[in-house]
Amino acid sequence: MVFTTPLKSNSIKIMLLGSGELGKEVVMEAARLGIETVAVDSYPHAPAHLVANTAHVVNMKDREALLEVIRRERPSFILPEIEALSIEALEDAEKEGFHVIPNAEAVKKTMNRKNIRDFAAKELGLLTSRYRFVKSLEELQAAAGEIGIPCVVKPVMSSSGHGQSIIRSEAELNRAWEHAKEARGDASELIVEEFIPFDYEITLLTARTEKETVFCEPIGHHQEDGDYVLSWQPMAMTEATLQKARHMAKTITDGLGGRGIFGVEFFIQGEEVYFSEVSPRPHDTGMVTLITQSQSEFALHVRAVLGLPLDFVFYGPGASAAFKSRQEASVPVLDVPDTAFAKNSFIRVFGKPVSHVGRRMAVALVFDEVEKAKNRAEEIVSLMNG
Ligand SMILES: Nc1ncnc2c1ncn2[C@@H]1O[C@H](COP(=O)(O)OP(=O)(O)OP(=O)(O)O)[C@@H](O)[C@H]1O
Ligand SMILES: NCC(=O)N[C@@H]1O[C@H](COP(=O)([O-])[O-])[C@@H](O)[C@H]1O
Ligand SMILES: [Mg+2]
Fold first, then answer.
1. Binding positions for N(1)-(5-phospho-beta-D-ribosyl)glycinamide (predicted)?
2. Ligand 1 mean position, distance from CA 205 (Å)
3. Which pLDDT score, from 0 to 100, does residue 2 have?
4. Does any domain span residue 117?
5. Positions in the chain whose pLDDT score sits under 70
6. Substitution site in 116, 156, 167, 276 for ligand 1 pocket (most atoms within 8 Å of beta carbon)
7. If exposure means fewest CB atoms within 10 Å of the residue's CB, which of 93, 155, 226, 270 is most exposed?
8. Which residues form ligand 1's pocket by a CB distance below 6 Å?
9. Domain span at residue 155?
10. Greatest pairwise CA separation for the chain in angstroms
């Protein structure tokens, strides 16, 4: 295939809205192609700030402040990297001719569980857990009665498990209500979901341009308190189940449209495949692709954004384990065991300027058969301190 890359021009500029660990890798992939990068987040010295050409600190929920930085920088592409940002600013920017990835409407739908759930279940007919939306403790009690216990309660806008609870008895509803309200993000409304006792869950990374859609091998993962701790690739699945998940991932990503990579999350129970949610950006569980693929999810995202071919090689199985800080520190220092540097392993330290208990600070990656890779990755993070 012959293609003309836009890379001959040095005028391409990518702006990341959100500058965490995922954005940092995106910035580095863009830099490898000679593209100028601008990283924006609400606090200084965020991971992607450390590697981008230009760094800005902006209140991400402030429509005018976000628009001002977009107008000033005039990026070729705007890549939202977090959910909690001013969607109005993205809509305004798109109207002014800026290219939002994948598009402002898709970002709006996916940032709010209400929009994406109704879109997937009602408009596209995808199988999901049963769900209700509630705005008061009384409505929560009623919804839990209808959906049944156990059920899962989450703010309509949140990520990495913030504000999420699994309800195992009626007595836990008050606490779940309080917990959701304390979370960052938008907890003015909550979703109550049927608890799916799944056999396993996966992220199906799906990259798309106007020309093609490609799927990565399915990624299995373990979550604790709604946040990822371990992921591995490939997750062993029957061909029929994988095809079902791919078909559903194609339906939802075509429904959202635009260019970029999507992390499509599914619960698998027997032969049933439940759509859970989708990120219109690289996914934390997909960090494993840093060691398993010739083009990681971050490289694929950049290629998709630029409209380049999405070919890549799956090198073989591997695993990733998240290191979460065990202390509060204003100058975090991480101790990393030598095993992290063994010939089939490496570590990515994000460089977050401050640590909190439970904040993800680094990820250990191991290239090996899945079970061995999982064990080794877990062992590395268990031996870490910081
Ligand atoms: N209905 C459910 N049934 C069973 N488990 C669930 C359900 N909803 C969520 N979970 C568990 O909680 C995890 C986090 O949920 P979800 O992905 O909705 O939250 P999140 O905060 O958006 O996470 P992230 O932003 O990190 O992807 C899921 O990966 C799954 O392990
Ligand atoms: N599940 C979403 C996710 O993993 N997002 C990643 O975490 C960062 C925020 O980290 P912080 O909360 O430690 O600042 C985000 O910027 C993004 O890179
Ligand atoms: Mg999720």
1. 21-22, 81, 284, 352, 359-360
2. 16
3. 39
4. no
5. 1-10, 185-186
6. 276
7. 270
8. 129, 152, 154, 158-161, 164, 193-196, 201, 223, 226-227, 265, 276-277, 284
9. 130-194
10. 63
